[in-house]
């Protein structure tokens, strides 16, 4: 079947609000709280050193640690976030709602991380450069290469092959895919704006940041589920079975 916006959004919700989705969401919540505390700590220490110590009183979730330890914590948190993203894509693409699929936590994780990191930089540059060219090429690049991460994470492709496969997979469905992504991004922006405004108006200043910390993992993980479901639907339409090998019959995980 071709990509259908309504069923994709609905199925993504089912996969997120499941046993595996709840576990992933809890992990992302914990990571986000810790990550925000580390960022706030870095800001507080920096402001204090610049002589603006009074400004740090408005920052919640600060830790009594050194700047170097906080920086190291941010680096570790970034790696953990990437790892959880890998697990999330493998889980959502497989449609595993009650238990995690085989290999979700362990299969080719280091190579997947490297390819996602390098591929993400390349993808970001393509979108950025395209956006400088009257915006439309940037939107086009964002849409046609959106499945780079699923190909790397689920199909063990390298980032070059993943970009090519994503471009090919989106052919014929790019307008519908653009509509789907526009809905998700617009809804995320609306929800984030409302939650941020409510937090700023209804909560005391030290706690105003907390609603955003809570909603961000939910929005991010739902977006991952949407991309995963769309990826699965288009691959079914394309007639490609799960975990298909590369053109030479071997997984392509190396850079």
What does this structure look like?
There is one protein chain. The protein is an all-alpha fold and 255 residues long. It has one domain (5-238). Helices cover 71% and strands 0% of the residues. It contains nine helices and no strands. It has helices at 5-16, 19-49, 67-94, 109-132, 136-144, 148-155, 159-169, 174-202, 210-238. Helix 3 (67-94) packs across helix 4 and helix 6 (148-155) packs across helix 7 (159-169). It is globular.
Shape: globular
SSE string, helices as H and strands as E: HHHHHHHHH
What structural class results from the helix and strand content?
A: mainly alpha
In angstroms, what separates the terminal alpha carbons?
33 Å
- Which oligomerization state do the chains in this entry correspond to? single chain
Strand content: under 5%
What average pLDDT do the residues reach?
87
Number of domains: 1
> What is the alpha-carbon Rg in Å?
20 Å
Model regions low in confidence, pLDDT < 50 over at least 5 residues: 242-254
Characterize the main sheet. none
Could you tell me the number of beta strands?
Answer: 0
Proportion of residues in helical segments: over 70%
Structure annotation, total helices = 9
């Amino acid at each position: 079947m071709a990509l259908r916006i309504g069923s994709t959004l609905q199925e993504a919700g089912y996969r997120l609000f499941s046993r595996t989705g709840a576990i992933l969401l809890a992990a992302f919540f914990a990571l986000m709280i810790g990550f925000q505390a580390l960022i706030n700590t870095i800001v507080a220490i920096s402001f204090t050193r610049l002589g603006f110590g009074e400004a740090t009183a408005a920052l919640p979730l600060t830790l009594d640690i050194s700047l170097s330890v906080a920086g190291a914590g941010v680096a570790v948190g970034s790696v953990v976030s990437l790892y959880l993203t890998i697990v999330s894509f493998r889980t959502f693409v497989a449609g595993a709602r009650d238990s995690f699929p085989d290999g979700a936590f362990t299969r080719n994780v280091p190579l997947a991380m490297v390819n996602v990191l390098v591929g993400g930089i390349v993808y970001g540059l393509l979108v950025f450069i395209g956006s400088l060219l009257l915006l439309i090429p940037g939107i086009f690049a964002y849409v046609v290469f959106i499945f780079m991460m699923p190909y790397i994470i689920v199909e063990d492709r390298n980032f070059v092959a993943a970009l090519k496969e994503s471009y090919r997979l989106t052919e014929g469905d790019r307008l519908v895919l653009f509509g789907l992504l526009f809905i998700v991004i617009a809804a995320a922006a609306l929800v984030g704006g409302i939650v941020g405004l409510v937090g700023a108006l209804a909560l005391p200043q030290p706690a105003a940041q907390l609603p955003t910390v809570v909603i961000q993992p939910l929005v991010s993980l739902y977006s991952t589920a949407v991309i995963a479901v769309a990826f699965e639907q288009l691959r079914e339409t394309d007639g490609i079975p799960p975990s298909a090998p590369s053109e030479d019959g071997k997984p392509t995980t190396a850079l």
